């Protein structure tokens, strides 16, 4: 592929990094490490649970251009900030650096599959996997760091994902609990972040050989656990946002030496990026089957490899859990759901103290044991003083189907007021609980009384500036 940014912006890189890459690339260093602009590449990935990419492109009130890295992604202007846009609040898109959208798209997820994202926070790639599942099947979204697992939960809630189990676990514990269960596994491994030098100054400041070695070892450990989780015939995508051979081509070469039951899928026809580099791995490794995105290709930088487990692997399928007996459905939820969400009234529920959840269909066959579960399905709400108090998550997941809705548009002054946490006039909604929607997409819940809608949009999510 020809350089996309001749005459572009040349960065100053850490000395050890530049020395390594110049030794590997020779004269190609100047070509591959030249960015189009000083500003980081910016983009969005459309949430297919909300709308199609073509729909958004035709109606967006901000500049978008098709991304070369993923059919559901767009590049945006460097100075555009998406976080305050009503569609962001409604989960219509996820703000994501363009090349970061590539790995999840390579996994070829289909509705009904059992899918695991082992390093899922903050949730951009996870949201893509959820959109591909279209609410069918189960998505395990795992994050080892507890604070990041909470951010992951919030983002999946905003995107209206209904069939995710969000876990906060070491991947070894997941592999021990669920061996051979998953059709697809994504490992977007913690890495030395060499592709983040333009985006994050800290990535450049903290870079050293010891960090690369540490991240390579951690990535190898996670890959081992991913291999154990994957069912025979299943597909694993491994990715990093770094250029280090230890974490990229050499990592995959080493994995394949340990796991002859896996084969490397050729990514040469994926439509973007460039082949992996043969001199970054042991002799005989088919590096050209991997894929790299360099700064010259329009992204920050990514490495990807797609691996398939042989369907003929000798494997004893784990015994399936006996389905748990559904929890007794509280009458308060029954009354509420029949009034506002009749399509949910007959669904089984799970309870945790006063809380009521709508678990993903089939999730009771995954043994949780002592695994740390942050959220399993959709938090419907709680029983407070013998009344049902709905949760924000319920309306983000199902608000467009609510029987009582206040329909706003992004240009309606009430939309901005709502996102600031203010009460607004009711026009289409009747008294009682209602879903507040913008252009048909849910923004959360309100309660109508006397022609006014009391704002229940969470304070931490509001546009307060």
UniProtKB/TrEMBL annotation:
Q: Which Pfam families match?
A: Methyltr_RsmB-F (PF01189), Methyltr_RsmF_N (PF17125), Methyltranf_PUA (PF13636), RsmF_methylt_CI (PF17126)
Domain SAM-dependent MTase RsmB/NOP-type span(s) in chain numbering: 29-310
Q: Which UniProt keywords apply?
A: Cytoplasm, Methyltransferase, RNA-binding, S-adenosyl-L-methionine, Transferase
One of its GO biological process terms is: RNA methylation
One GO MF term on file is:
RNA methyltransferase activity
**PROSITE patterns per UniProt:** NOL1_NOP2_SUN, SAM_MT_RSMB_NOP
Question: Which InterPro entries does this chain map to?
Answer: Methyltr_RsmF_N, MeTrfase_RsmB-F_NOP2_cat, MeTrfase_RsmB-F_NOP2_dom, Nol1_Nop2_Fmu_2, RCMT, RsmB/NOL1/NOP2-like_CS, RsmF_methylt_CI, SAM-dependent_MTases_sf
**Residue numbers annotated as active site:** 241
Q: Where does S-adenosyl-L-methionine bind?
A: 119-125, 143, 170, 188
The record, for PANTHER family, names: 28S RRNA (CYTOSINE(4447)-C(5))-METHYLTRANSFERASE-RELATED (PTHR22807:SF30), NOP2 YEAST -RELATED NOL1/NOP2/FMU SUN DOMAIN-CONTAINING (PTHR22807)
Q: Which family does it belong to?
A: Belongs to the class I-like SAM-binding methyltransferase superfamily. RsmB/NOP family.
Name recorded for this polypeptide: NOL1/NOP2/sun family protein
């Amino acid at each position: 592929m020809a350089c996309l940014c001749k005459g572009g912006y040349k960065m100053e890189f850490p000395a050890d990094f530049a020395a390594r890459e110049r030794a590997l690339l020779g004269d190609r260093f100047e070509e591959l490490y030249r960015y189009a602009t000083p500003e980081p590449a910016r983009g969005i990935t459309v949430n297919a649970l909300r709308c199609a990419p073509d729909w958004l492109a035709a109606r967006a009130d901000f500049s978008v251009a098709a991304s070369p890295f993923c059919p559901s992604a767009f590049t945006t202007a460097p100075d555009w900030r998406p976080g305050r846009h009503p569609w962001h609040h409604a989960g219509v898109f996820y703000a994501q650096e363009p090349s970061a959208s590539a790995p999840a798209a390579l996994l070829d997820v289909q509705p009904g599959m059992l899918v695991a994202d082992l390093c899922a926070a903050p949730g951009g790639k996870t949201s893509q996997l959820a959109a591909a599942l279209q609410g069918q099947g189960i998505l395990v979204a795992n994050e080892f760091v507890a604070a990041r697992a909470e951010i992951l939960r919030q983002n999946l809630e905003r995107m209206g994902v209904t069939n995710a189990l969000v876990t906060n676990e070491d991947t070894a514990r997941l592999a021990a609990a669920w061996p051979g269960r998953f059709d697809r596994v994504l490992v977007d491994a913690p890495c030395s972040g060499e592709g983040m030098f333009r985006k994050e100054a800290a990535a450049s400041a903290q870079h050293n050989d010891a960090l690369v070695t540490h991240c390579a070892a951690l990535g190898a450990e996670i890959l081992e656990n991913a291999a154990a989780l994957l069912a025979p015939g299943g597909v694993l995508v491994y990715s990093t946002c770094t250029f280090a051979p230890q974490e990229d081509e050499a990592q995959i070469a080493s994995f394949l030496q340990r796991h002859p039951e896996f084969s490397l899928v050729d990514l040469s026809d994926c439509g973007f990026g460039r082949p992996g580099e043969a001199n970054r791995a042991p002799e005989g490794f088919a590096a050209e089957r991997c894929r790299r995105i360099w700064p010259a290709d329009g992204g920050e930088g990514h490495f990807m490899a797609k691996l398939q487990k042989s369907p003929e692997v000798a494997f004893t399928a784990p015994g399936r859990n006996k389905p748990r007996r559904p929890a007794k459905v509280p009458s308060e939820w029954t009354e509420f759901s029949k009034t506002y969400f009749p399509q949910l009234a007959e669904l089984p529920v799970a309870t945790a103290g006063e809380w009521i959840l709508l678990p993903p269909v089939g999730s009771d066959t995954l043994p949780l044991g002592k695994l740390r579960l942050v959220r399993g399905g959709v938090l419907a709400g709680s029983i407070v003083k013998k009344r049902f108090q709905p949760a924000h998550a319920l309306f983000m997941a199902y608000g467009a189907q609510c029987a009582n809705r206040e329909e706003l548009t992004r240009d309606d002054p009430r939309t901005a007021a709502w996102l600031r946490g203010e009460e607004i006039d009711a026009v289409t909604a009747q008294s009682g609980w209602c879903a507040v929607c913008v252009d048909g997409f849910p923004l959360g819940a309100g309660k109508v009384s006397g022609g006014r809608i009391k704002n229940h949009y969470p304070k931490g999510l509001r546009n307060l500036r």
